[in-house]
Amino acid sequence: MGLWPSHVTFENSSLSAIPQTVFAKSSGVETFNASGCDIYELLPKTFRHAADLKYLYLDNNRLRKTYGSMFLGARSLELLSLSKNQLETIDPQTFRGISYVQEIDFSGNLLRTLPDLFFAEKPKLKKLSLADNFLQELKKETFGEMTALQELDLSGNMLRALVAGTFDGPWQLEQLLLQNNRLEVIEATAFENLVKLRGLNLSNNNLKVLPATVFNSMGVLRELELQQNYLSHLDSATFEENLRLVMINLDNNTIATLQPALIQNLTDLQRFSIEYNQLQELDVQLFAHSTDLKRLWLSGNFLRHINPGTFDTLEQLEDLYLAGNLLSTFEGGLFRNCSELKELDLGGNRIKRLVAGSLEGASKLQKLTIDKNEVTEIEEHFLNDTPLLDTFSAEDNFIRNIPVGLFGKLTNLTTIILSDNQIKELAPGTFEGLESVINLHLNRNQLKHINASLLNLTNLEYLDLSYNFIRELDETALEGVPNLVTLDLESNRLDRIPSAINKTIKLDYLGLQRNRISRLESGQFSQLSSLLTLNLDGNKIATMEQGCFRGLQSLTMLAFVNATPEYESLDLFNNLQNLTQLFMEETNYTGLNSVRLDSLQSLDILSLDTNSLIGVDPGFLSGLKNLTRISLKKSSIRFNASYFGSIPNLEYVAFTSNESIALDETFFAGAPSLQTVEIQDTLLESISVNAFRRLANLTELYIGPFKGELKDIFTGNEALKTLRMKQMSITTLPDHFFWANRRLDTLTIDGNPNLCELKPAWFKHMAYLDYLDVSSNNISELSTDLFDNTPVLHQLYLAENPLRVLDVGVFRKVGALTVLDLEDTLLTDLPVGIFDGLFKLEELFLGNNKLSNLPNGTFRELYSLRMLWLSNNSIEHVDPFLFADMPRLKEISLDDNRLTSLDDRLFAAQLALQNLHLSGNRFVAFDLTTMPYASTLIYLALDTNQLRSVKITPGLEFLTADDNQLSVVETSDSDYYRLATLSVQNNSFSSLDSIYRFDRLQELNVTLNRIAVLDFAMIATKFPRLTVLNASVCAVESLGRTDNPYELKELQHLDLSNNTLTKAEMSKMGKMPRLKTLFSADNRIHGVLRLLDRLSKF
Q: Which residues form the signal peptide (predicted)?
């Protein structure tokens, strides 16, 4: 091999071309890696002497095309990676001379077509990736002679159909990846030659039906993925010949029924998933022959009941997921034969009681999840059948009491999660004998007191008591948890540092944020020598005594944001030699009230945002040699070079929203390692042409506003990747302004009222540009060659420019776009074809324009579009087939137009529509139950129409219908409703009778109606999860009867202002322990403060 190594790498260098000397005669180079360089072409004859080359990596460059015999000479080549380049075309003779290649990777390019027989004469090619390109069809000849191919990746393309003969050539194929295409049709014989296929992925396509025999030839198929399609039915014979299947995934389809015959022959099946479909029941014989099944996913369906015997044959089942259904019970011996069951998830159902015996048979259960149900009662012996249980989670229920013997037999229990319940007190002995418990979550309950007899958990490491009502901890409260590592007491009512914490000498995290602590006293943390993180944010600390951090020699993170302390010593931090992160936002840090930082020699991150810093010595940072990040946003001083005179390791600095700054050439001289500089919303009085030139590592820069003449200030910043220039008074820029910044991937030029034109020359060398925002300028025209040199642009923001008219070909060179914003651009029409070729566009914003007529075909090739914004235009009528080519559309806004109705065919193609915005139109009635998207819609906005009636579906989760003429909310009869947010402000409601059925409501707004009686007892009963209630200006006279005491357990915000309530009526309010805000002005009450003693969080 002589002088040449066998492995040569230039990875992530600035190499623009491969030196021909690398492959000199007899060089012996076997591996050449030039990934992540800046190679834009391969010179002819580069590889003519590369006879020994086996592995060639050229991914993450900017090659635009190939040419014939490109790799001629590399006759031993086995692996070729050209992924993530910018290849648009491929010469048919590209691979001439490399007949023995085994693996080729073309993924992540811009290929739309492949030459006929392109891969011919590659007898040894085993692995081929064409993923994430723009291929729209596969010809029968494409893979015709690839007889050795074993793995083929075609995922992330634009394929819409697979026809017979497509895969006739690669008969040895074992793995075929077709996920994330746009497949709508697969012919019955498309796969008939793939007799050796073991893995097939068809997920995330647009399949509505499958031919019954489409998989018949795949006798050895092991894994089949069909999730995220639109399949509503599978023929019973679909898997009849696939007897070797071990995994099937059918998640996120619309299947309502499964026939036992579908899987009865699949005796090898081990993993079966059909989550988030529309199953309402399971045939008791469905799994009768699935005796090897180990993992079963059934979450996110509409199962109300599961018949005993359904799981009787599943003796090997280890994991069962039933979350997000409508189950009210799981009694009756459902798991009596599931002796191997280890994980059971029943979260998000409607279970009210946990009954002893329900888990009979599940003797090896290790993890049980019952989160987000309606559990109010747990029987003492509920867990007796699960002696090996490791994790028990019953978060977000309505549990008030934990039976003392519930955990008594669980000697392996390590994690208990009882968060977000209504537990006010835990009896002594609740956790008795649980020496194995490591994690205990009791946060978001109503605990007021913790005593030592409760926490006798000698191995406990994690204790979460946050968001309770704890005022103090007994001196001995934590004696029983000597190995505690993490203690979270956030958002309680502590007014001092609990002395009990000094019993936990192994503690490394202490969270005390958002309590009522006003003073840090000397020696309070003296025993916490292992503490690493101390968070005191949001306590309004007024005094910090000298020595208050004594003993914290291991501390690495300290935060006391939003406090106004008086520092009693300049040497407050002298004991914190190992501190690396310090957060002091909003702490009134000034020259008259400050503390020295120079003792913090290990400090890495410092945040002093929202402090005036007036009078602080400019050299106060000079001793921080290890500082890499500092944030000084919203200060009241003028920064200059003296503040950064000697911080050699500084990488990030932020001055956002400060006083004006003059950037001279010495400003950053003391911080040569800077990578990110933020000087946004800070007036720049001047910018030296050399201000940034010495910052060779600068990758992110955010500047503006500036009113002077902008010179070539970025010529020395070749590493720059992100640049935002806000309000820089730009009228124009020289053609070469950005030519030195060839690595730019994110560019923002916004807020320049005199910038009327974008020059194509600016983007001449921006081959990596991914994000371009030129919003809020005065651009009136886009030239058709503007984007010729930005082939991988994904996000383009043009909002708030007076474009008025767009050329039909303006976007033809940006086929990779995923986001396009044309809001508020004065557009009056869109030429048909303007969006052609934008196959991967996901979000399109056209709001706030003057569009009135959108002809059919406007959106004809937007196959990937998920979000379309057409709000605030002048649309009176929508062509019924306008959206026919956008099957993936999930959210559309037609707010503030002139619509009176929607054609029944309008959204027929949108099988997964979830969010519909129709506010500000002229609808008189709206019946969601008759719409084609009734089963998928979860968000509906109908504000400011002329509605007299509205009817919704049980699955809707959010409805706003303010400013209409409604008196009721109609719905189809159901035993469940998922509505969580309802706003009917300014309507004609006189009662809440039609609303009471929505028992999952969390937010309710009935402001500006006429509801004389607001029955709080009924509200507490019907809406147990209600957190927000707005009922102002409703002429409320009464809060109902008070026969029985009630509690609005979750209510946090209540507005009863501008009603006619008396003091006597207000006194009827039950307990609201979590109430934070109460508005009751302009009623007939006096002495309202006497009511507040029942509002614990107020």
A: none
DSSP states of 982-1015: EE--SS--S-STTTTT-TT--EEE--SS--SB--
Do residues 421 and 397 touch, judged by C-beta distance below 8 A? yes
The pLDDT confidence band at residue 1085, using thresholds 50, 70 and 90, is low
**pTM, whole model, 2 decimals?**
0.94
Which residue, among 322, 227, 318, has the nearest Cα to 282 in the 3D structure?
Answer: 322
Say which DSSP state 820 is in: E
Rounded CA-CA distance 257/902 in Å is 31
How far is 640 from 663, CA to CA, in rounded Å?
8
Reported confidence tier of residue 1012, pLDDT bands at 50, 70, 90: very high
User: Which whole number is the average pLDDT over 531-555?
Assistant: 95
pLDDT attached to residue 270: 98
For residue 835, what are its two tokens?
Answer: 């969006």
E strands within 783-832? 795-797, 819-821
Q: What is the pLDDT of residues 649-671, one digit of tens each?
A: 999 999 898 888 999 999 998 89
Supply the DSSP symbol for 327.
Answer: -
Nearest to 387 by CA among 372, 374, 368, 370: 368
Q: Where are the alpha helices (DSSP H) in 558-627?
A: none
Tell me: the pLDDT tens digits for 935-983? 999 999 999 999 999 999 999 999 999 999 999 999 988 989 999 999 9
pLDDT score of 842: 98
Long-range contacts of 1020-1024 (CB under 8 A, 24+ apart): 1020/1046, 1020/1047, 1020/1048, 1020/1049, 1020/1070, 1021/1046, 1022/996, 1023/998, 1023/999, 1024/374, 1024/398, 1024/999, 1024/1049, 1024/1050
Split at pLDDT 50, 70, 90, the class of 591 is confident
- Partners of 272 in the β-ladder: 248, 296
* Within-domain flag for 337: yes
Q: Based on the structure, what is the number of domains in the chain?
A: 2
CA-to-CA distance for 1063 and 834, rounded, in angstroms?
65
* Domain annotation covers residue 131: no
Question: What is the model's pLDDT at position 4?
Answer: 61
Closest listed residue to residue 1054, CA positions, set 1009, 1012, 1022, 1020: 1020
- C-alpha–C-alpha distance, residues 386 and 403, integer Å: 16
Cα angle: 521, vertex 527, 528; to 5 degrees: 95
CA distances from 430 to 457, 697, 1058 (A): 11, 58, 47
The DSSP bridge partners found for residue 354 are 378
Q: In the chain, how long is the greatest CA-to-CA distance?
A: 100
Does 41 reside within a domain?
A: no
Asked whether residue 657 is assigned to any structural domain, the reply reads yes
3-state secondary structure of 502: helix
**How far apart are the C-alpha atoms of 483 and 478, rounded to whole Å?**
10
Question: Stretch 694-701: mean pLDDT, rounded?
Answer: 96
Which of 700, 729, 758 finishes a domain?
729
Residue 1044 pLDDT: 74
| Average pLDDT of the segment spanning 595-621 | 92
Q: Please, which residues bridge with residue 654 across strands? A: 631, 678
* Section 1042-1058 average pLDDT: 88
User: Which of 754, 766, 758 minimizes the C-alpha distance to 722?
Assistant: 766
Do residues 575 and 602 touch, judged by C-beta distance below 8 A?
no
In the listed set 383, 398, 413, which residue is the last one of a domain according to the structure? 398
Angle at CA of residue 985, ends 982 and 991, nearest 5°: 80
CB 380 within 8 A of CB 402: no
Per-residue pLDDT tens for 805-824? 999 999 999 999 999 999 99
- The answer to whether 974 touches 1000, Cβ cutoff 8 Å, is no
792, 769 contact by CB (below 8 A): yes
The residue segments making up the domain with residue 658 are 611-729
Could you tell me the CATH number of the domain that includes residue 658? 3.80.10.10
